[in-house]
């Protein structure tokens, strides 16, 4: 358990909880603690779905600019790779991952949210990539994941302007998946995650991998990735359970095996 980031597990749901007052700024220590929590969530069999949560007031308002201001070019050459891979560790969790966003998800905070599969957003939240206002660009995956999510033209407009998006615009362009009152963000994320806890673990994992890996390659290669993952699931116990239940017109009781 880190000083500012911890993994809390209850009833199959692992919550990666950011807790660095006041704004959950992502300094180097927080980045590395996010990586450690993501790897723990990946490894733990009792975690079937994951929520990334910054608390009731703020998700993450971005990088620690005071820390970043002191860095030289060579400092950032050394640090930029670990910055990206700390966020990618969340994207690579082979389980459904939901960002529960209150307050602000800006800069590195937005990039962390983009690394999740889904985003539940408070109705008064603000999202964006304001790095351009510092004379830099997103460095934690924002130029790549945002463009893949909302399209290149909209991503460029958001990044070039550095503006903040409200919840409704975020929902309209696909940056947010669900908008709820701020007080309900975490419970809504829990409700969403709960549906995966009793699901076929390896089928969900394969589905996530097929979509994510397919976006990285051409269509023919993506189809081959899908084919191999599809065929591999015929070696799982949950495939037997699911098909037997369908034939018998019963509800499948998956075992996660």
Describe how the helices and strands are arranged:
Blueprint: E1 5-10, E2 13-18, H1 28-43, E3 49-53, H2 65-69, H3 73-91, E4 97-101, E5 104-106, H4 108-114, E6 118-122, E7 126-128, H5 142-150, H6 152-161, E8 165-166, H7 167-173, E9 178-180, H8 185-197, H9 201-214, H10 219-232, H11 237-247
Parallel strand pairs: 2-3, 3-4, 4-6, 5-7, 6-9
Antiparallel strand pairs: 1-2, 7-8
Helix pairs in contact: 1-3, 4-5, 5-6, 9-10
Characteristic key phrases:
single chain, alpha/beta, three-stranded mixed β-sheet, 11 helices
Helix content: 40-55%
Strand order of the largest sheet: 1-2-3-4-6-9
Distance from N terminus to C terminus (CA atoms, Å) equals 28 Å
Structural class: alpha/beta
The fraction of residues assigned to DSSP E strands is: 5-15%
Strand tally, please?
Answer: 9
Q: What is the H/E string? A: EEHEHHEEHEEHHEHEHHHH
Average pLDDT for all residues: 96
